[in-house]
Design goal:
- It is a single chain.
- By secondary structure, the protein is mainly alpha-helical.
- It has one domain.
- 36% of the residues lie in helices and 5% in strands.
- A two-stranded parallel sheet has the order 1-2.
- The longest helix has 14 residues.
Length: 77
């Protein structure tokens, strides 16, 4: 399991995960080159890029959507 965001700094949470999932290797996203505090920002940047390119940002098999969709909206200033 790759952990990111604020939870990666919560020792109690990580210990609870390890206890609940004893067969699971749990590590920070930092071990994969992604700073755990920046993953959410990177995800939103990727979604913005996909929106601007007119490409879908969802996976219907994961989200349950009826098909691929361009996500978000752009409101020029």
């Amino acid at each position: 399991m790759i952990v990111c965001g604020g939870g990666v700094h919560n020792g109690r949470l990580l210990a609870a995960l390890a206890e609940a999932l004893p067969e699971t290797h749990i590590e920070s996203s930092a071990a994969h080159g992604l700073h755990p505090d920046f993953v959410e920002a990177m995800a939103f940047a990727w979604l913005a890029r996909e929106h601007l390119a007119g490409r879908p940002g969802n996976l219907p098999a994961v989200t349950g959507a009826t098909g691929p969709r361009v996500l978000g909206a752009l409101y020029p200033a």
